[in-house]
Amino acid sequence: MATVELKGAAIDSAAAFHLASQAAFGFPDSYSHTIDGWVDCLSYLRDADGMSKFRLFPKEMLEIVITDSAALQARLPELVEEISYCVAGINERYADYGELPALKLVLR
Fold it and tell me: In three state form, how does the secondary structure of 10-33 look?
């Protein structure tokens, strides 16, 4: 399973989350630094379109680990909720196309 780590202790705003995500996931320079852009980039993990440095096999998942998640939850609870919601929505999008879920969110 492929893994990407976001350091929750370093994320103090939505802007910081998007900068960390772009670096960790290898999003392209055209990444919009919005939650919609985050969803779009992670919706093509099994395609060769260059939206991320990850390219998953049909049954492979990408594990997103957010360290120090309790601190992040205390600072930005709405962001943690939105990330969780979006991961579920992205997996639902994969299911709509007859594919297995592609993401697993781990809060540490």
Answer: HCCCHHHHHHHHHHHHCCCCCCCC
- Decide yes or no: CATH 3.30.370.10 for domain 2-107: yes
Query: Which tens digits make up the pLDDT trace of 16-37?
Result: 999 999 999 999 999 999 999 9
Sequence-separated contacts (24+) of 70-78 with Cβ below 8 Å: 70/8, 71/8, 71/9, 72/8, 72/9, 72/11, 73/107, 75/11, 75/12, 76/11, 76/12, 76/13, 76/14, 76/17
Sketch the domain layout of the chain as residue ranges: 2-107
User: Which amino acid, 92?
Assistant: E
Place of tokens 């990850």: 54
